[in-house]
Amino acid sequence: MTLREGEAMKIVIGIATAGRASVLAETLHDLKYQTRQPDEVVVCAPSEEDILGAAEAFPGVRLMTGPRGLTRQRNAIIAAVPDAEIVMFFDDDFLADAHYLEAVETHMEANDRTVVVTGAVLADGIKGPGLGVAEGRAILAACAQRNGPGAPESVFTGYGCNMALRLAPMRAFGLSFDERLPLYGWQEDVDLSRRLAAYGEILLLPGAQGVHLGVKRGRSSGIKLGYSQVANPLYIAAKGEGYPRTRAWEHIIRNLLSNIAKALRPEPYIDRRGRLVGNMLAFFDLVRGRMTPERAATL
């Protein structure tokens, strides 16, 4: 869709969620402070229980229930907004700075070659025990007096916790999130970003900032995730759509070594032993020629 002069770009916020209704409500609550309000907020969850309190947190939010799985839920959101030009995907535990959407709109209107924008993550709880909502808000408040943001930077992939997609090329070329990547959809952001890279630029936008809480509730088990750590990168690389096998193996080996090194004394918030078991199961299936990303969901 091409904007007519003076016509506002339609931006929809999409959130796929499962098992974290209380955190989702806090994330939705904070969206009310965006200086550029979304034209619509759409939330997709596997069950009504997953979205308790959402309607009260952000009046007017569109709530959908659909099949479980991040990629399926995100595709359902895209299908539900056929007139949107941008879908801004936030994780249900991502707190966006008040100027986030404003920065995305300003950039996307002026740069029609940009197909994916990902913001600057000020703190990422996924790398540790996770951050509380109050901690995330405090980090955003502390950065309110920061210096002006720098110029956009070219990046290999968007980061799925905060990733804006221009829908025109996706519709024109039949692109969507790969639903063969089950559950948490490990590396789904890389897969779609690399396919979209054939039609434009993928950029990190420093002026779009936020905090990823990295809440541990609702995530896949260690064994399932460990399997996906091996199966998903190799599956994506095998497509031959811009994700080199060398990069896939670097990613796999880095995770494998980390799981091995920490299996004896794992962090209390990460199932390292489960991940290592999942890694080994994937390698066993790879040798037997029966490894598929879908198998993670059956473990």
TrEMBL record:
Pfam families: Glycos_transf_2 (PF00535)
Domain Glycosyltransferase 2-like: 14-121
Keyword annotations: Glycosyltransferase, Transferase
Origin: domain of life: Bacteria
Annotated GO MF terms: glycosyltransferase activity
PANTHER family found in the cross-reference section: GALACTOFURANOSYLTRANSFERASE GLFT2, RHAMNOSYLTRANSFERASE WBBL
Entry protein name: Glycosyltransferase
Lineage, opening ranks: Bacteria, Pseudomonadati, Pseudomonadota, Alphaproteobacteria, Acetobacterales
